Amino acid sequence: xxxxxxxxxxxxxxxxxxxxxxxxxxxxxxxxxxxxxxxxxxxxxxxxxxxxxxxxxxxxxxxxxxxxxxxxxxxxxxxxxxxxxxxxxxxxxxxxxxxxxxxxxxxxxxxxxxxxxxxxxxxxxxxxxxxxxxxxxxxxxxxxxxxxxxxxxxxxxxxxxxxxxxxxxxxxxxxxxxxxxxxxxxxxxxxxxxxxxxxxxxxxxxxxxxxxxxxxxxxxxxxxxxxxxxxxxxxxxxxxxxxxxxxxxxxxxxxxxxxxxxxxxxxxxxxxxxxxxxxxxxxxxxxxxxxxxxxxxxxxxxxxxxxxxxxxxxxxxxxxxxxxxxxxxxxxxxxxxxxxxxxxxxxxxxxxxxxxxxxxxxxxxxxxxxxxxxxxxxxxxxxxxxxxxxxxxxxxxxxxxxxxxxxxxxxxxxxxxxxxxxxxxxxxxxxxxxxxxxxxxxxxxxxxxxxxxxxxxxxxxxxxxxxxxxxxxxxxxxxxxxxxxxxxxxxxxxxxxxxxxxxxxxxxxxxxxxxxxxxxxxxxxxxxxxxxxxxxxxxxxxxxxxxxxxxxxxxxxxxxxxxxxxxxxxxxxxxxxxxx
Amino acid sequence: xxxxxxxxxxxxxxxxxxxxxxxxxxxxxxxxxxxxxxxxxxxxxxxxxxxxxxxxxxxxxxxxxxxxxxxxxxxxxxxxxxxxxxxxxxxxxxxxxxxxxxxxxxxxxxxxxxxxxxxxxxxxxxxxxxxxxxxxxxxxxxxxxxxxxxxxxxxxxxxxxxxxxxxxxxxxxxxxxxxxxxxxxxxxxxxxxxxxxxxxxxxxxxxxxxxxxxxxxxxxxxxxxxxxxxxxxxxxxxxxxxxxxxxxxxxxxxxxxxxxxxxxxxxxxxxxxxxxxxxxxxxxxxxxxxxxxxxxxxxxxxxxxxxxxxxxxxxxxxxxxxxxxxxxxxxxxxxxxxxxxxxxxxxxxxxxxxxxxxxxxxxxxxxxxxxxxxxxxxxxxxxxxxxxx
Lengths: 580, 389
Description:
Distance between the termini of chain B: 51 Å
Largest sheet of chain A: 7 strands, mixed
Structural class of chain A: alpha/beta
Strand order of the largest sheet of chain B: 2-1-5-3-4
Shape of chain B: globular
Radius of gyration of chain A: 23 Å
Helix content of chain A: 25-40%
Strand content of chain B: 5-15%
Shape of chain A: globular
CATH superfamily of the largest domain in chain B: Alpha-helical ferredoxin
Largest sheet of chain B: 5 strands, mixed
Radius of gyration of chain B: 26 Å
Largest interface: A-B, 92 and 83 residues
CATH architecture of the largest domain in chain B: Orthogonal Bundle
Oligomer: heterodimer
Helix content of chain B: 40-55%
């Protein structure tokens, strides 16, 4: 690796007096962001990575089950691609899916060579486990801490290459800078530690800030998943795509929304209703518990709605059928989650679960190299919509998406940086952000609602109206509430007016991001008058390829999101009926 | 729902005031967490209360703090349990349970930035970087994966389970005495590479960590980090593994800890109980060879321990003087010594190190209602097959 950053090479993440300039700036330091930064640095350009939390706090940690790749003898990328396409309910772009599944094995080996402690079989080779929606056991894993294990190894590499990649840890990004040619040339960021605002200059900016799960309550997502990158891109005119496609994970704890990995079902756990029936027999007789997530979530919700669930609005996940030794070795985290957060010993009794908000399939529209409609602006991971997940993401494909398209974005952004001169962002964008913050600070206590109140109303509304089952009246109602909340946010007040670690202020800015995300999801969900993947409209219960085998794109206007459509790329796999 | 009072150690750096205590009333289910209590306070009462948090599920490692004096994660400590502990503590000093409140403070051994937010960069991350925290393989990687023992990967997955929350650093007594101590988190991270068969610098790493005066021999074996760790990484165990590996590497332990351990094991194998008359000499000058030709260091250490022995006799700590005479130590009755030997034999035959992921209990505790493949789903059975294939 080569290349010297223009920022101080002996970098201290806390203080940075110099005006930060990098060839490539990555915003967000989960798996997609870290992979992008490392890939760009390998090309010999100077790289900065900015994250509102310390990188190892990023939500990629939460990916428990594993990462898919057709690497076993007898498996093929075509099979992986077909499963992904079928899982996406044919809304995934097949060119992108081909790239992801073809490049997957090499990426797994790369991670293994970097030091990821992947599970081994008896011969000492990489071993796999079964996962939902897959026709072969092709999920590579580290116990049930796969995301954490991979992310900590990538962070090891960031520490190793700290001369090439400057880390801005706990810097919160508020706006992108666009030059007079309409190209992205920087970002405005607030140093959380001291409240100073900085305008970063860059030849390419990669948004990798994760998804928007916090728009729903409850959610499996961390508090930091507030759709920042999606909203920032939208606000400067980038197109968003498939925003209606929000995954509800079949096994989350009631109340807090914590995740129980699909690995549990991969290891053989059963789903039972209150009568003790293995109800998946009715909904997916072949794949049973390992059908696609949208299918399993709908099955559970139907059982619950029709009175066959438990009084707390749940069904049961029975892990006691998995041998205990295997549970301790492969599902240890779930043993802890059961014990600490539900008071249940999962090796001895079933645990109550329900579908819960989990993943943003939609996001910033990109091509297979992470490029958005705005030159110089890239996106990767859950923030982006390439789209490889279409209407429904398969388990263990999200880590893969972050790494493959993180890497490709990093490489392409670096090549752009080598090619162009780059322009200096106008100070106006910094002044605007200073003014935005001053205005929030100027609101007197009691001038409106508390920010936290608005967040709560948003979350419960979206979970009630824009969830597993949707209809026009419900989505319309949610949209009206979201628009009212947007108005109320203009006068919402905060308590903290300081500079150091002002989380209250950051929360107010995040609320703005969340509301933009929510509005786009409502608009797209209203528009798609069919049922496909995660979008199930009770008023349009069938998939309608004739009219709706297309992406819904959204672009910001003064009157809200403007709708347009784009074709789904089909390379070889024709849409067919989807049964499991 | 229940009512609780939390008492938070606060520090607002821009106020010009020093740290102070503030109490808040919260209302929540006992099964919810201390972090939930703090978030409720932030949401409803005081948004300026600073606490790092993200996942709420003990995987991101953001919310390290001290609760009733114990380091851990706010999200993993239930408020009801914290209250019970507070009441017990209050009872122990004769106070009434009604006055007990849940006490929340920032982590120890770290400078405080604001309220519960500490500077982990200077105290935690700088030390992590100290141990060269990345894999150092030799040569180009293989075409496919490195072939390694499955157990070796499971072994280092235990330190890999570390989420870098800093709770162990916060609780570390050695670090309190020696702020330069590399510390439990960074040393656990170091074992993750030392134990990794893919790493080619094992020897160099061990020498580095052993020769640093703030390195592996700076740990006092107090278990505080083991208690604090929310992920059962047991940092002290990882430090002990490093010491053992260092011993195997022929690195001299300045505390003679490794030799001391071997002396314990050998004496009990031979006599069934600990013959203290032999312990010191076996630790410093093991075996006949050690006694015939004691090293300078052995002589120095033996002489150096005489004042301690005299103090022990004077203060009555050492009550049975004959015990100090070699050879007088009693033997085990009947055939009990054979039982001891059988235990040693069993341990040697089952020479595997248990950790988080490798459990020993399965052999002795088969589940009576263990499922058969017949009632497992076809898919899962097929998966299990391909797994074992």
